[in-house]
Structure formats: C-alpha cells, structure tokens
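WARN no homologs supplied; continuing
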Amino acid sequence: MLEKIKKPNDIHKIALADFPALAQEIREFLIESVSRTGGHLASNLGVVELTLALHNVLDLPKDKIIWDVGHQAYTHKILTGRKDGFEQLRKEGGMSGFPKRKESPCDAFDAGHSSNSVSAGLGYVRARDLSGDDYHVVSVIGDGALTGGMAYEALNNAAELKTNFIIILNDNNMSISRNVGGMSSYLSALRTAEAYTGMKLGVTKTLKKVPKVGTALVDTVRKTKSSIKQLIIPGMLFENMGLTYLGPVDGHNMRQMMKLFNEAKRVEGPVIVHVLTEKGRGYAPASRYPDRFHGTGPFDIQTGKPLSVKKGSTWTDVFGETMKKLGKEEKKLVGITAAMPEGTGLKSFGKMFPERFFDVGIAEEHAVTFAAGLALGGMIPVVAIYSSFLQRAVDQMLHDVCMQKLHVIFAVDRAGLVGADGETHHGCFDLSYLTMMPNMTVMAPKNQWELEKMLEFCVRAEGPCAVRYPKGSACQKFEEFQAPVEHGKSEVLYRGQNTAILSVGSMTEVCGQVYQELKARGENPTFVNARFVKPLDTALLDELAKDHTLFVTVEENVKNGGFGEHVAAYMEACHPEARVLPIAIWNRFIEHGEISSLRAKIGLSAPDILSAIEEYEEQE
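OK structure emitted
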C-alpha cells in the first residue's frame, strides 16, 4: 500500500477500507527506519492515523498544515512523497527530522520549538483573507505545547476571527516528559467526560430527527453559550475564549476524525478539534517508555534497547549528580525545569528533594521570572534549560533577573552544536545573548570536574550566573589541572610565548590537539582555559600582551557578540599592537549532521584551527 504514495495527495487514490492497512505499513516503516537512523519515534507513532485523516480531507500544498514543534511530521513527510529520504534522516545533507519549507511546498512552516503553531497559522489565515485566497489552514498543537504562554496569546487573538481556522489539539498526555499544571488537569477532565461526549451525540441525533426544525435546533444549541457543555465539562475554557470546540475524538479512529475534520472545515471562525492519541502506539517499548523514545538513537527493534552503549557520564549526568550533592549541603537550593526533568538531569534531584523541585511545563519565560521570585524570597534557584530553548526567555533574564541583580543560576545545557536535530536546536547564540546582560557572570567548564566546581562557585556567588556546557559525554581530560574557580580568573594550562590559544569550554579538548601539534612543530604557545567568558580576565590579557603577538580565541558560539569579539575589543583598546584571531561559528544557522563533521565543515576542527593560524601568520 505504501508504494502507492509517490507524491502529495496520492492518498486520495486509496480506498478508505485500505487506510488501516496503510497505517500499519507506515508504523512498520517508521520503526524499521528510525531503528537504523535514530530520530523522534514515540511522537510520530502516535499521529499516524491523525495525519492520514488530515491528508485525506485536505488538498496539499494548497491547504496548509503547521506542525507545532514538528518532530511528529514523519508520516506527513511520507505522504508527501519523501519516503526514500528516510535513509538519510537527520544526517548531514539528508532530510531533516523537522518540517522544512525548502524540502517540500507541503511543509508550510519551519518548526523545531514549541507553542508557536497557532500564531503561525493565524498569520496564514489573515494573509489568506487579505489576499482573497481560498484554502484551509490547520495548526496541529500538542497538549504539552499548550503549557506555553505563546499558545494562549494566539488563541486569544484567534477568537476575533470570522473565517475558518482549524486547530487540532493532539492530546497524548505528554510533552517529552509527563505534562504538569492546570491545563493538563483541565484536559484530563475533558478526556474522561465520556458522559458528555455520549450525551452530545445522542442529543444531536435526537434533535435532528425533529421534522423541519431539527437542524436549526442543533445549531441553536451549539451557539448557546450556556449550553449543556458547561453543565458537564468544567470551565469550557476554549468555548469561553470564543473558539468552537469539537471532540474529544479517538485519534486512532480515522473515520471519526475525518467526519469531525470535515465538520470543522465548515465552521466560520476558529475551531478546536480535540484528538486523543497514544504516544508510541503500535510499538510496545515506545508505548511503555514514551519519554525514552521521544528522541532516540539507533536501537534493536526486538528489545527496544539502544545499539550504542553510553561511555562514561554525560555533561547532563554530571550536572544532575552535582545538584543532588549541593542539595544536601544547601537547604535553600531549588531546581527548575521547563518540561524536561530527565533531559536536563534534574529528575533524580526531584526525587530526592520533591518539595524543592519545580517542573513548570513548556514555559521558559515563566521559569525565569518564577526563579526571580524564588530568589527574592530567599531561595537559590537553579534554572536548567537547553541553550536553544533559553533563547525564549532573554527578556525575562535581562529585565527580571539581571536588572535586579538576583542570585539565579542558569544551567545552560546543550550549548554549542548538538548534531542531528539541527538548526533549531544548536545552542550557538547563548554566549552572545548572555554576555550582553549587565550583572551576568558567564562560565564554561573544560571538563566534568570543572563543571562541578563551577556549580559550587555559583551557589556561593552573588547575582546571576550562567554555566554553559555541551551535549554528550563529559570531557575527562586535563584532570591534572584543578586550580580553584575564582571569579573572573582564567586557568593557564601551559605558559609559553608569541602565540596564545584561549579556549572556551567544550573547545578545550580540540584546542589541546592544536597545542600539541604546535609544540611538535617546535613552537612554544600558551594554552589558556578561559573559564569565564564574562567578566574577561583582563589581568591575564595584560600580562600575556607583554610577550605574545597573536591571540587565538576558540569558541562553539557565533562570532557576533562572542568571546572572541570581546577579547578583540579589549586588545584593540588596550594593546593595539597585538593581533587577535577569533575562531567561532559562522554567523548563520547550521544544519543537522554529526558534530565532528559539522565542526570540520565550519572550521572548528583541530586541523582547521591550525590552518587558520598558519594562514593568518602568512598574511601578516
């Protein structure tokens, strides 16, 4: 059946009776494919029928589907003729794991972050109406994404619409980890309101049988604000906001969904269709452990176990263990995460100190200002968020934390290149936006020991602090260098002359290779572990300027606003005779691929750094 899908809308040629078989084939294909390449499995297995039903009632690419986050769009990619691309899924030069407009006109919006699909969809609707076009716009948003405030800003705005806009609420009771908060409880009430669902269908059928006036009566009931819904479902949040609510409907019953989607297409205004799905459906390991199969590497299909064995602790593991240790020593220490207790390493801290652990849902802005309030109340909050997601809370960090000089610690995970998830997930901008903030202290550890010591330093410090560390196995090299962490002080690993290599955090291991190669060539460079990106260790720069002519800075951050630019600005002002060579990420978005390969591609591998130094010296 799957071989009949070669291009968009080929699904219209398949009989409805064959849809269950097609859904089964898609599931088998996804499990087999992702077991080889890795990817987001559980979320995609949960929306197979939902995607089939949507594609069956829509005309793509004329109609628009905006997938919130986008990691559940694999079936959508298959149905739009990209099945063969799964061989290179998330590999450099291959197909992205997220919707990409450059891949297909059927991808209406480039996605990767949460809670923005309703805003984007509303923009499409307004543009459609202004242009006099005629197409349907569908935003698919998960219940986890509804913990993000941006979704409510958009829903509030959408309520003013007088034309059709379909919002599919994909409700699987999960984001990455289990959902938390009031919206989760509210949706739970909707899910379990079977009495209401059955009554609604029964009343509708009965009223429609009334001669001549039946249909009109049904419409009247639907339009009545104090309808039967409010008697049985507490609050009726969506309808009270001005949106028509349909559902809930079984997200694995395609006929029911298609019927409801066609009904939604006829609504003159915004309409929410509440669809209940099961994350990981059809594959027992993913259904049993949906968070583990949210994003997975290659795995054995029979057992569900990963093919590669983790070697040593990850940076996230080290952070998690250090938090438990510090939690025992400091009773005021609290941990905050935005829907990722396991991903950030705070899960074990939460089990040990449940009263001091807060999962606020997908709400990074709230997490930061919530931390500000905790700090003002005498606590020491640690906000653990991925670098790419922390971008969403820049205003709150700047205005609510830094302006008040509050003692809030930011654990910035996944800083630098992250690999297969690509441009929406690389943490390439945090040094730039963190160092621009007054009163913020910014650090990056060279190895796992230093991460632990930096976190200890942050707990003792005053004012806002940020520690940024990468994805993957924690560096265990340079153990012989364990100078105490002092505010604003770098660590000189090897003292030489003429050329100074200043590395930031994750690049120290690569810079170590550069140092050794320069030594092998007969040179005697200085090798510095910067430790602090802000404040700069200007005392060391002044000292090195006496017998060094070239300063090479290396960081896994964009060049604009990064460590290298800060060093260059200082040296130009105070030591104009010195030359500075900043080596950093291009000022552009980097696509997906293996981290080592991406580093080589953008000039951050050891050979590339050596070549850059040679070329610079030749030019001079």
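The first helix runs from residue 19 to 37.
OK
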